[in-house]
Each structure stands twice: as C-alpha cells, then as structure tokens.
UniProtKB/TrEMBL annotation:
Entries under PROSITE patterns matching the protein: NUDIX
Name of the protein: DNA mismatch repair protein MutT
InterPro entries, sorted: NUDIX_hydrolase-like_dom_sf, NUDIX_hydrolase_dom
Domain of life (superkingdom): Bacteria
Family: Belongs to the Nudix hydrolase family.
Stored Pfam families: NUDIX
C-alpha cells in the first residue's frame, strides 16, 4: 500500500508572486501549511499551521479551496506521495518567520526550481491561470 502524506497549504499571492517559506537547514522553499492533527478540518489545520509558521491569523471567512495536488514527497523513500489540499485566504497581522521557519520569500514562476515537486505542480497551475508571474 502506498504511503501518503496528507498536507494542507496556504496560497497567498501578492503582485503575481506566491508566498513561500523555508525551514531551518533546508534548501527548498515550500508553500506554508502542514500536516493535520487528529480531528482537525482542513481550515483548522491551515489556520494553526500558518499562525505557527508565519505569526499571522487567517481570516476564516476568506478561506477558499483551490485544489488538491499529489507528487512524490521530497526527502522520503521512493513511492511516498504527498497530497496537498490548497486554499487561498486573507490574513491579519504582520508576516514574521516563527517556529522552524528560517525565512519567507515572494516567489515567481521563474523560481519554480526552488520548490518541492508538489509545489511545482501548483506553480504550473497558478501560472497557467495567470495568477503567478
């Protein structure tokens, strides 16, 4: 049976650039979010992870589903897949790296090679839709 890592991700685009985060000691950037805890909905996971990682509070009424993407998981054994449910949402507060996050960066489509395989699929779709420069 295939191993699947269930994740939820926050897509936040400003001026055609997508917010990305990089964990301490890692080279690749990823889309903010993470794994759900027992009993959490996608929206609860998203809000908790974003606040833990970037110190901002998502506005629940603005959360909207974008899609689900699946690819090989980076840094895991062959056959391990990551399944990422992606959502747009507005936020309150000032972005500040927290917890394991070393830095955040605004990424364009040209920087697609700086993100994980599943994030590259998301970049492709956002670019095709004209949302990502």
């Amino acid at each position: 049976m295939a191993v699947r890592i269930d994740k939820v991700a926050w897509l936040y685009i400003a001026e055609g650039k997508l917010l990305g985060a990089r964990s301490k000691g890692k080279a690749l950037f990823y889309i903010p979010g993470g794994k759900r805890e027992a009993g959490e909905t996608d929206e609860q996971t998203l809000a908790r992870e974003v606040e833990e990682e970037l110190s901002v509070r998502l506005r629940p009424e603005t959360i909207s589903r974008f899609g689900v993407f699946e690819a090989e998981a980076d840094g895991k054994a062959a056959g391990v897949k990551v399944v990422m449910s992606c959502y747009f949402a507005d936020f309150e507060g000032e972005l500040r790296p927290a917890a394991e996050i070393e830095e955040y960066l605004w990424l364009t489509y040209a920087e697609r090679d700086r993100v994980s395989a599943v994030s590259q699929l998301i970049f492709d779709q956002l670019h095709e839709l004209g949302l990502l420069l």
